[in-house]
Amino acid sequence: MACAALAACTTARADSAQSHAGGRASSAPATAPVPGDGNVHLTDYTDNDSVTSTVVLTGAIGDHGSARYDSGARLDLELSRGTFRLDLSDLDGRFLALMRHLAVNQRSCSASGRVPIVPGSGTGAYSALSGAFDLSTTVDEVYHPGACRETAPYLAQQIVTTGWGNISRT
Hints:
The chain is mostly beta strands. It contains 2 helices and 8 strands; from the N terminus they run αβββββαβββ. The chain has an 8-stranded antiparallel beta sheet, covered by helices on one side. A hairpin with a 3-residue loop joins strand 3 and strand 4.
């Protein structure tokens, strides 16, 4: 399970960090402000079936890092300023149901659902964080010519989970 960036948003602070780092983004300083209440755009993406992926958050949370999917249908976000967990059970169930009917080389597969932040899962700048995201997961795969089912090796794959959420500090 994973996600990809659709928005090209930068903040003045990110622009400033890039200009001071020679055009490269630097990691957030330890004194970075605590995220506020509001809208957050989440993008998570991978090019394989691994349980790990890359995640980017913009808006009320401007952060990045990695994500790890666990078998309990939860996504642990490990960001530069802390961690929190999303409960993907509803979205994961919808996505897996669609995958059962995916025909090779005929279409991509996409599912959408509401994904709450797991209460009490936050650390660092994300402790006491609550809210939910409306996310969509899409998989696009290209198989070797002549492949007749999804268990055949693929030539290329992209799994993207993206959407908006609203967060608050409890």
